[in-house]
Amino acid sequence: xxxxxxxxxxxxxxxxxxxxxxxxxxxxxxxxxxxxxxxxxxxxxxxxxxxxxxxxxxxxxxxxxxxxxxxxxxxxxxxxxxxxxxxxxxxxxxxxxxxxxxxxxxxxxxxxxxxxxxxxxxxxxxxxxxxxxxxxxxxxxxxxxxxxxxxxxxxxxxxxxxxxxxxxxxxxxxxxxxxxxxxxxxxxxxxxxxxxxxxxxxxxxxxxxxxxxxxxxxxxxxxxxxxxxxxxxxxxxxxxxxxxxxxxxxxxxxxxxxxxxxxxxxxxxxxxxxxxxxxxxxxxxxxxxxxxxxxxxxxxxxxxxxxxxxxxxxxxxxxxxxxxxxxxxxxxxxxxxxxxxxxxxxxxxxxxxxxxxxxxxxxxxxxxxxxxxxxxxxxxxxxxxxxxxxxxxxxxxxxxxxxxxxxxxxxxxxxxxxxxxxxxxxxxxxxxxxxxxxxxxxxxxxxxxxxxxxxxxxxxxx
Length: 462
Description:
The chain is mainly beta. Helix content is 5%, strand content 41%. The chain folds into three domains: 9-130, no CATH class; 143-238, Sandwich (Immunoglobulin-like), CATH 2.60.40.1220; 248-461, Jelly Rolls (Sandwich). It has helices at residues 21-29, 409-416, 426-429, and strands at residues 9-10, 35-36, 45-48, 58-63, 72-73, 80-86, 92-94, 103-104, 111-119, 124-130, 143-149, 152-160, 164-166, 172-174, 183-188, 194-199, 210-213, 219-221, 230-238, 248-252, 258-262, 272-280, 287-294, 299-306, 311-319, 322-327, 338-345, 350-355, 358-359, 365-367, 380-384, 395-403, 432-436, 451-454, 458-461.
């Protein structure tokens, strides 16, 4: 085949630079008419851009061998050739500046159509991969726990293995001592891994039974895989030691003010997330809202307002010369209540910045060479308000939390709660390693270590 100096990857359903969509589809339909080229163990190497321009800037290659056990190749109407690929089960991972299909999951024996179409006016090959047969997710969700708390005996909380959605109560019931109890409605959690159901009758102490989901239930994951018929025993009368109150906020309006928490458990050893609610002061100064550091001078995380970009900024460090940097897309409104969540994935070394429940991330960039967060040295401190730095985080703080996992977008939506700070459900309680509600003191609420007021901080009623 003629060498490709420039190529372009796009989905089969898009016309892109192919002027005649019917002709393009005919090329795919004609795959059976071409001859066997007997190619094996050939790797796919494509130059592409996410913005769909023809002049690529990023080399994109697949990792995980593709075995071409069945390949057809040949000219079709003078326009190009088709390769019908039989995969060996390895995933095709496309890395770099690429958004159409970052990963194509395959199963052994699955076929994928790769079409090379010659564009005579551009004198180059256009490349299309049809992933329509690719299996992105075939694993159904499972219910991992079901709980009723003493404090809320007419609510059933069910945790699933992944985010799920539910359209109605069809096929859902309780058995055992609760055979006559009806699961009447879903009260929260749709689109997350934790669903809370309202029961028409409170669950009594000492009773037992299971949450039953029949073959007609309407619970499914984001790929459309339905919950398999089964049941999960309900843990009844859980002592709810978790309480949530949001009555005050911490006011930081001068240098040296804030709350300083000393806790070695807060240093990330893998994935992590930080959540906080603030009413920011937006002016001509930089403001460090949260700083996680050790006494050896190593920073883990800084979340701030950068006046140069007028955006929220997050950084995760290997050291001060080597770190990853991420800005939000939206300029905060002065004094308006703002919900921020930063998540970090250690495997991919990527951050995501959420604003008011939605992904607000701009493009992450790397300064120097980031190799992950190193082990801590000495005392670990979490500075709420930037009291120890030159750029105090002037604003009002209501709720600050840290988690030892990368929160999902569904969990972030749950925490945002349509703009009202909310307590943690059972699933999120298990992931939280520190919570400071700042209710007229610097104490940890429910989990973590108490902080110490710095400077002349004040707390005011919300």
